[in-house]
Design brief:
This protein is mainly alpha-helical and about 120 residues long. Helix content is about 75%, strand content about 5%. A two-stranded antiparallel sheet has the order 1-2. The chain starts with a helix and ends with a helix.
Length: about 120
């Protein structure tokens, strides 16, 4: 049940990011939005720890600020994968992706706090 709730919260967060950031576009259905949320979860579970480990010197040097770039890269990878399987999510550039990833993170965090996440 926790997986379903977390997926719904992530889908909501992606939808909010698309609504707020002019460089992000979504033209798919609700099912596609759920698929994007699952893709984002898998990317964050598999790729993010590896990228974070290899960029640890940069993370330490920037006192953690580089984690924002890693977050944006994971969102960019999600956008790329969703484009490859034609789910309807696209971005006009890295700035929009960075801002979108920040919004997804904040909305997901708020959703987990409100719904009593892990």
């Amino acid at each position: 049940m926790a997986f379903v709730i977390k997926t719904l919260v992530t889908a909501l967060a992606v939808w909010v990011a698309v609504q707020l950031v002019s460089g992000l576009e979504f033209t798919g259905s609700f099912v596609a939005l759920l698929a994007i949320a699952v893709i984002l979860g898998v990317v964050n579970a598999l790729a993010r720890p590896i990228v974070t480990l290899f960029s640890l010197p940069l993370v330490l040097l920037t006192l953690g600020v580089f984690l924002l770039v890693i977050n944006a890269l994971m969102f960019a990878l999600t956008i790329w994968i969703s484009g490859a399987v034609d789910l309807g999510l696209s971005s006009t550039g890295f700035g929009a992706t960075l801002l979108g990833s920040l919004i997804v993170s904040v909305v997901s965090w708020i959703g987990e706090v409100v719904l009593g996440g892990e």
